[in-house]
Amino acid sequence: MSQQFTYYSNELCQIHQEPCTNMCINTKCLQPLCPECIEIHFREHKECQIESLKSCRTNCSKKIRSSISEMNQILSLQEMKTIENSSQYIEMCRDSLQQLKKQLIDKIELYNKKLLQDFNNHLIQTFKDSQIKEVYNRIKNLIQQLDELGTKLETQSDCQIKTIRSIYLLNTTQLIQSASQEAYKEIMKLKFPLLVVSQNLNQKLDELFVQSIQIQFKKTNPSILKIEDKLQQNIQPINVQDIASMNQSPLLSQINEIEQAKKQSEFTITMEDYLLPNVQNKVLHYFKYNSYELNLINLDNPKITKKINLKISFPIPVFHQSLITKTGQLYVIGGTTIDNNYPNNKSNGIYLFDKNSLVNVGHLLISRSSHGCCIIGDYIYSISGLGQGQTLEKSCERFNYILRKSEKIQDCLYPSIASCCVNYNNQYIYKFGGLYEKQQMNFIERFNIKDMIWQAIDPQITNKDIPLFKGLKQFAAGVQISSNSLMIFGGYDENTVSSNQSFLFTIKNENHILHMVNVKPLKIPGGFWHSQCIIYKQELFVVQNQENKDSETLDTKTILRFKDKWTIC
Fold first, then answer.
1. What is the domain count for the chain?
2. Which terminus of the chain is more exposed, N or C, with fewer CB under 10 A?
């Protein structure tokens, strides 16, 4: 028998009535064993955990001594000794607070330097991004235009009636309010960095204070670090089995929730209301094709539609464009007149809705229909479309609805009908797709308002979106929903098959990303003859064509709204 069995206990084995010499040290067992029990007990556990009583006694003794030693170390801490001398500890804390004060002052100095640098950089960028110069120039231009009207009134006797009529129809109150609101908005953008700094300063100082206290506390109390090290050593590593079990835990669903939340945030509408606050009637609208009817949808209650029978001598042209300005004025531009004597005759009329009628306030330079249309500042832009004789127009123009003047702008690069045109930050018009010679056209271009030129755009499409993207549709609709993203949705392909496709078009400097394809598809596939989208209270509103079972477009419309998801009003 080996040396380890030479130590005996006075306790006898309950089975063999022999002195116990060993013990199973499995904490779930701790069975004392005699020599005869040992061989039997080996089979009861997967791993042998039998030790001699002498060895067990030695290990227990070490455990007790080690624990006592560590407990004594805790009692020997300087802070524990202050129980006997509290005044000494108070003095020590005062010294620590003085050092803390110095550290805080140093940190505030460093933070202040960084704050000034960040604020300077942010303000420079804000000036670059700000449209305050454009607003300033636009207001100066308005003053000049008003001055020109005043000069005409004084000097041109042959057209005074026309000038007087123009001035009477001019809503100067809305012009002044619009200019004031635009100026205030841009001024607030410049003040915003300072406001943010003011709001966050106290929070940052609190963070600095907490960090400094923690650092100073550890410096003053080095023994605390030893205790922390001990605690860290007692933390058990994660087993492979534990990692595998995570797949059966809520972790994956949490990751999915985070991904979904990220996608959701991409579609959050952050743009301000399109219609100015002083506009009394917040409405979505559409003029019914080949009729005398205007429909106004109440944005506060989209289920309410007001039908107005227009006092006009002609039916509304089909495939016209109509827009509402920020100040609430409704315009009808171009279209095709239904006339047996002159089939497919294109209109060049620009009409203003006033007192249940349409007043002719200007003319397009080129008669057109199914054209792209967009409003920026004081201008209504008419882009490409079908001209007289069903010719595809490459020409583009804009109409100043204050001065009521039309002027030509550069021809677009990719002529098309029924393209989707979207205003981006009042700096660019993005033109998406449309039809070219009865084929779906998958080109994007943009018009630079400042430089007055068109540029071709070649966007990046994420790999996961490539198989989902079905091209750019005719009669799609789009709108800017955030500071750097457009949302494009719906439309028809070249065979007039309705699409429920939607995607985001994100602009980052000169990089363009087409992504999030069909993350938020339309509930009902379809196109948009009346494509102007209105943002109101962080919701998007738009009028969609309604179709029957034979895919024929009806005069009936569907009012859609979007806030994280599409709903039908």
1. 3
2. N
332-341: long-range contacts (C-beta < 8 A, 24 or more apart)?
332/287, 332/358, 333/364, 333/371, 333/373, 333/380, 333/382, 333/399, 334/364, 334/367, 334/368, 334/369, 334/371, 334/382, 334/385, 335/369, 336/369, 336/370, 336/386, 338/290
Q: Are residues 105 and 66 in the same domain?
A: no
67 in the same domain as 129: no
pLDDT in tens, 405-443: 999 999 999 999 999 999 999 999 999 999 998 889 999
Task: Give per-residue pLDDT as tens, 225-252.
Answer: 454 455 445 444 434 334 334 344 444 4
| Mean pLDDT score, 32-44 | 86
Find out whether 540 and 562 touch, Cβ atoms under 8 Å: yes
Same structural domain, 404 and 501 = yes
- What secondary structure does DSSP assign to 457-477, as a single string? E--EE-GGGTTT---PPBT-E
**CB-CB neighbours of 372 under 10 Å:** 26
Residue 174: give the domain boundaries.
101-223
Q: Strands 444-448, 453-457: parallel, antiparallel or unpaired by DSSP?
A: antiparallel
CA–CA gap between residue 531 and residue 321 (Å, rounded):
8
Residue 264 lies in a domain: no
* 325 and 423 fall within a common domain: yes
What backbone phi and psi angles, to 5 degrees, belong to 555?
-70, -20
Identify whether 86 is part of a domain. no
